[in-house]
Structures are given as structure tokens and as C-alpha cells.
Prior knowledge:
alpha/beta
Amino acid sequence: LTYLFCHPKALMVCIAHQYLFLHPDFVFPGQNRLSLVSLKFFTRMTAIGATKKLALSFRKMREVPSERIVVVPPLLRKEVLETTPVNGDYLHGYLLNSGFSEEIRSWHKVHPNVALHIFWDKKEVRPEVKVDSFLSFHQLNDTLFIRYMAGAKAYATTAGFESVCEAMYLGKPLLMVPAHIEQDCNAYDAARGGAGIISDNFEVDRLLEFARSEYQPEENFRSWVRSCEWRLLNCIETAEGIGFINDYKLIYE
């Protein structure tokens, strides 16, 4: 609203995954037309007055000058970039809605010897709820989350963009259970590239089968992610009238 009504002199560059929804080549899953129109409208509202919209993406896509859109790699934490993945013997997961934990518990009763480490956002419980020696629920913890991701056999998630990217970077097969329209788009986009499968619930059997027989790591994804810094700096440097690239570089480092 500030940029709409007050027109500040400082230029604004917006960066988020959602700006990819304004790209003419982005492929949406089957959705209610009103939902898609609302999603695009909201996305445009967040970037009123922006000199550039930097759209985080799983893959390279063309620039769209008419929309001031430049596609750039995902922004991943340094801890992820510096992690060496290994193929462990347990499944890793994240539940946006802790209610999904009942699905996990039910599946575990049928498959009691498959180890699972599941993270949830349930604040009124202990940091680790250990159901038995094969199933544990963990409170969100950045360091612990990445450690378990790096050593997992596969990853089940509600399809948030960042954790999907982290799994792809570390070469982990994905089961994605979207909880809303943005996650529907994330899951569909990732599945199109072969990163994982989509479901309405936590079908861990399907994830294990996918990891065993169908999963093909995206070979170019890691190099795409690692090109993020220079691509971002170049986009900011070339934004019309911006002359603070050296200061920004210092802050970034």
C-alpha cells in the first residue's frame, strides 16, 4: 500500500516462490478457476510497485520482462548446502497439521519395524514423543530437522516449498500431501520433475515403493541451487537505478 499510494524513491525488489504463479509458462494442477484467480490476485497485490519480481523455482525458466519476472533458484540455508546426505534406514516427515499423526500411528501398527522420525508443530508436548523404538515425533528444530533429512531413506511432507527443495537437494524421494492451494501447486510442480508423488493422505507404502523403483534424482537441481548467490546479486545489480550492490554483498556474506 505504501508503494501504491506514496511512491517512495527507494526501489523495491520482491522475492518469493509465489511469483512463479504469475509466469505464463507455469503449469497449474487442476484447480477451481476462482481459487486460481484469487491466488494470482493476492500475489500481484504483494508486489505493487516492485522493480523486479524474483520467482524462486525448482528449475530454470525464461525471464518475462512484461511482468518484471526473473526466475531464480531456491534460497536454501547454508546448513543444507553444507550437509552430506547418506541413505539411512528410516523415513523422515513433517506434519503441518498434527492431526495427520493418527495416520502415521495407524500405518506404524501395520508396519512396526519401519523406523520413522516425524516432525510436527505441536507445542504442548515434549521435544520428542517416543511412541516406541521405531516411531518418534519431534518438535520443530532446525538443526535436528536437517540432520534427520540428510540421513533419511525418503521424506513425507505437506508440500511446503522450502522443505521440498531441501529434500530434492539432498536427493530424498518425496511423498507430498498438500494442505492448501499453494502446496497443491508446489507438489504438482515437483512431481512433474520426478521428485516425488502426491497423495491425499500419508500413504507411506507408496513412498517406499516409489523410492525403491521409480525415483530418479534431478541431476541439475544441485547446480541450479548453487548458482543462487550470483544470480540474485546480478538481478539486484541490474535493477534500474540500484547502486548498492557492494553493500548488499557485504550483508549477504
